[in-house]
Design brief:
Chain A: Keywords: Cell membrane, Membrane, Phosphotransferase system, Sugar transport, Transmembrane, Transmembrane helix, Transport. Chain A: It is a multi-pass membrane protein. The complex is a heterodimer. By secondary structure, chain A is mostly helical. Chain A folds into two domains: 200 residues, no CATH class; 45 residues, no CATH class. In chain A, 79% of the residues lie in helices and 0% in strands. The radius of gyration of chain A is 21 Å and the shape is flat. Chain B is mainly α. Chain B folds into two domains: 192 residues, no CATH class; 65 residues, no CATH class. In chain B, 78% of the residues lie in helices and 2% in strands. Chain B is built from eleven helices and two strands; from the N terminus they run ααααααααββααα. In chain B, helix 6 packs parallel to helix 8. In chain B, 45% of the residues are buried. The chains are: A mainly alpha, B mainly alpha. At the A-B interface, helix 2, helix 3, helix 4, helix 6 and helix 7 of A face helix 2, helix 3, helix 4, helix 6 and helix 7 of B.
């Protein structure tokens, strides 16, 4: 598929995922591992796309789970730009993550802009309510925010994908080893941020020993992730009675 | 005496029958309201009134059915445009209660505007707390984490499974909760919230969440040092070997905890952390520390 087509499709995907159509459905569409499926279909390179998506996902694991609906970082913008470029230019995962991060930060501002402008539709709905115009209220809740979303979201991803790839490829060919090694280190540390945020959101310091237990169970006992989920679930059921002994 | 009992029994049956008939909303109306709220919960969210617009929009099928004059409809619509924000999966329970109250009001029950708004604003905080800690802090990262190994091996299943399972689980839950809210009403919701079982559920989910975060940190945080010192006698001291001889994975653990305690102390300053990680990585790459 041509760069133009990929840029158009990624722009549309980003718009639709960030539209938040379907409360929990859209929350998953925003995740790098789901964006990666779409990129895999577009580029025809599913394995590379999924591997990069998985690496990027770790950085953003806990990010969407903040109370109040404020996005601290936008995994969808990061993924919709960095995964297609990385797959097409054959970048490795660590470098793709390093490329993704600035876009994740920019995404926050785009969302702040959207939520500020969305206030227009609430005021419009106030007027419709006076007239008991229910069709008008439905349009304010669905149609207008969607159009606004397209205007502010599509161009960002389209432009980055369309113009970005040659720039990125040129840059890659000029990069010294100390810089590529820096990206490896960044890629190794950043998943820690995803986990730290999730632990913070769970918010119970007294339960930290379970984290350390899970950590060393993998290193000493070589338990894999699925097995850990099974044992963890059993343990959670066994000890749930402790809940009443402390203030939740 | 016997006859009395029979007649009071039939009277009760008649009353129940009447009550059933007077309930003018059908399951289909509630389903419509539930679906509108699910589809648009965050779509029109604004800093000014967050979910108020979508809550009002989701009540339109109900309001259309219950009120017939333009004035009554306008009143009801304005009532639901007041500030509202919650976690929308558990929040559907509030929707159920609001629907039940609107229905009673339309039947001539003395329910004021402020009591409907009061219930909504009173319950939105506690239910957001429960919903955030179960739906967003536990189920979501756990589902993703569970299938990351598939994605890391290049399989699309790593994304497809969470994409299907997460909406499925939350849809079933929110549909159950809106009906629960509609049938049992606010008093039993409040007892339900104080019930120990809810606490246990959150506690169990948190424990599982932390175990999984630990397991994933061990798998995916990658940090080693290439530092090697040569002693005077010419033997080489490999720093990473010394660290590993104490316990494996100490550097990754240090990375997670440093970021965690920074977050606890300074609040969610993600951008600062991101920039710091980049700077530390570049500097230690140049110096050969990491």
């Amino acid at each position: 598929m041509s760069t133009l087509m990929i840029a158009v499709c990624m722009g549309l995907y980003y718009w639709f995922a960030r539209l938040r159509f379907g409360y929990t459905l859209s929350a998953m569409l925003l995740q790098p591992i789901v964006v990666a499926i779409f990129v895999g279909l577009l580029t025809g390179n599913m394995p590379a796309s999924m591997i990069i998506g998985a690496g990027m996902q770790l950085v953003y694991l806990g990010v969407t789970s903040t109370p109040g609906g404020n996005v601290p970082s936008d995994p969808a913008l990061a993924a919709c730009i960095a995964i297609p470029i990385a797959v097409q230019s054959g970048m490795d995962t660590n470098m793709a993550i390093a490329l993704a991060i600035p876009f994740g930060v920019i995404g926050v501002f785009v969302d702040q802009l959207r939520r500020t402008l969305n206030a227009i539709w609430v005021h419009m709905a106030d007027k419709h309510a006076e007239q008991a115009n229910m069709g008008g209220i439905m349009r304010c809740a669905f149609v207008y925010p969607s159009i606004l979303g397209f205007v502010i979201r599509f161009p960002v991803v389209f432009a980055a994908n369309f113009f970005g790839q040659p720039v990125v490829e040129k840059f890659l060919s000029l990069m010294p080893t100390w810089l590529t090694h820096s990206f490896e280190i960044i890629g190794g540390i950043l998943p820690a941020l995803g986990f730290a945020i999730t632990i913070m959101v769970i918010g119970k310091k007294s339960l930290l020993p379970y984290f350390i237990g899970g950590f060393f169970a993998v290193l000493y006992l070589k338990v894999d992730v699925m097995a850990m989920a099974i044992f963890g679930t059993c343990l959670a059921f066994l000890i749930k009675g402790f809940a009443n002994k402390e203030d939740v | 005496m016997n006859g009395n009992q029979v007649s009071s029994g039939t009277m009760q049956n008649e009353l129940i029958e009447k009550a059933k008939q007077s309930s003018r909303l059908t399951k289909n109306d509630i389903r419509k309201a539930w679906l509108i709220y699910y589809l648009g919960a965050e779509l029109s969210s604004s800093y000014e009134r967050l979910q108020s617009l979508i809550f009002c929009a989701s009540m339109t099928p109900i309001i259309k059915k219950l009120y017939h004059t333009k004035e009554e409809q306008a009143e009801a619509l304005k009532r639901h445009l007041n500030f509202f924000n919650t976690e929308a999966t558990f929040g559907s329970m509030i929707q159920g209660i609001a629907i039940a109250m609107e229905e009673q009001k339309s039947l001539g029950e003395n329910i004021s505007d402020s009591s409907i708004t009061g219930i909504k604003t009173g319950l939105m905080g506690p239910l957001a707390g429960i919903g955030d800690s179960i739906i967003w802090a536990a189920i979501m990262p756990l589902l993703i984490a569970l299938f990351i190994p598939f994605a890391a091996n290049g399989s699309a299943m790593g994304g497809i499974m969470p994409l299907i399972l997460y909406p499925a689980i939350t849809l079933i839950l929110s549909y159950g909760l809106i009906n629960k809210g509609y049938t049992v009403g606010r008093d039993s919701i409040i007892t339900l919230l104080q019930d120990g079982k809810m606490k246990q559920l959150i506690y169990g989910a948190n424990v599982l969440g932390l175990i999984m975060m630990g397991a994933l940190s061990a798998n995916y945080v990658n940090l080693t040092t290439p530092l090697v010192f040569s002693t005077a006698e010419g033997t080489k001291v490999v720093v990473q070997e010394i660290i590993d001889s104490i316990a494996p994975g100490l550097l990754p653990l240090l990375a997670v905890f440093s970021i965690y305690f920074y977050l606890i102390k300074k609040g969610p300053r993600y951008t600062t952390i991101l920039i710091s990680v980049v700077v530390i990585s570049v500097v230690s790459s140049l110096l050969g520390i990491l």
